[in-house]
Amino acid sequence: MKILNRKSALPVAIALLAMAGSVRGEEPAGKGTMPNIVVIMADDLGMMDLHCYGNPLVDTPALDRLAAEGMRFTDAYAAAPVCSPTRAAMMTGQAPARLHLTNHAPGNKAGFALEGSDLHEADAARNLPLSYVTIAERLSAAGYATAHVGKWHLSYVSRDDKDGPSEPELRPDKQGFDINIGGCFRGGPPSYFAPYSIPTIEPKMEGEYLPERLADEAIAFVAENRDKPFYLNYWPYSVHYPMQAREELIAKYRGREGPGIKNPVYAAMIEAMDTEIGRFLKALDELGLRENTLVVFKSDNGGYDGDNRPLRGFKGMLYEGGVRIPWIVRWPGTVEPGTTCATPVISMDCYPTLLEAARLAPTPDHPLDGKSIVPLLSKSNGFERDAIYIHYPNYAFHRMNRLGTMVREGDYKLIKRNDNGELELYNLANDIGETTNLARQSPELAERLERKLDAWLKETGANMPFRAPKD
What we know:
Alkaline Phosphatase, subunit A, 9-stranded mixed sheet, 15 strands
């Protein structure tokens, strides 16, 4: 049975928990003990799109430096191979399967099936309801100044929905953020150059480039709130379609095409994003905020326009190219500089991690599918995880994916397909490209992981594809 976490029932509990200190029983959090928190989430950035993850052709000095100053995760996963479910998981700590928000908004029509097929995709929500208590609401109740800058994509409302809230009522400023700049129903900007046609951000000058403007807004927020704890979602629209960058930077990458770069415009977009993130991080330093600021950088799903090799597949697929992402954390005093971590982590982990960083306890009646990765960041004991799961019972925008669910346990990954029940088993330790299906070679392991996966789907109350007569 799904447990609803109704906001109306929680204000008193949240306030008491905020005063009660951390889950480990420390003294109540106060000024000087509550770190500033910045979550930077790129859009559609693949793990192999950064220099520090092994791409020699793309220049990403700011993120390379962030990795050198913090911890780089090598086995990090998005909660879904598309954006909206991952963003919902970040905000709630719950798996898209539990939220029933499993596809990008607006997705396909209800019960969509490919032509000639009787397999209909699972029903999926198109927005994050106000009933869910977000991490922004938890931190705001604890005294944090909060802002969302950039892409949201959790507020889509169909024009046919006359009974529910309107799209503006589901934007970040209604979900715990004091400030919302750029967040709305859009999954990508109609243009990266002004005018953007994004209802929550107006251009300030002719020729303005969206990544630069979003960095300006992020810098302005931290500067204004430097004397109190703040939480900032800095979620660039980059590097989502449309492919647009300044011509001088595109020219730099013409002729560099090869393994790592398929499109010089895409490479230019990556570097442009990196430059603006670097400018933001420099501002943190100049404001004296580095030492007391936890910075998390990650992507919302695997790459689509880049070269994901040696990973198989791309955005919208359950192969590693669709779900494995870059993930970097810098937290002076907790994270040892220049470290790497090969323990699998997933988007839902952000919520409990930020709670523990702020020394706040979990909220009653709010199931958490993620785990705090603070023990991993500090290289201490206490992080135990049996497996991670990703459920994608929907067709992506390109409709080139097969519906299914995956589980990763240790080095092994099992994908169960919804069309015919096929099992795909891979040993990622020696086959990161998922070239050899071991399901027939190791049937007992495949069947055990299938039982575990099925039990998880039942526990989360996941919506599933269904068979129906062909049209």
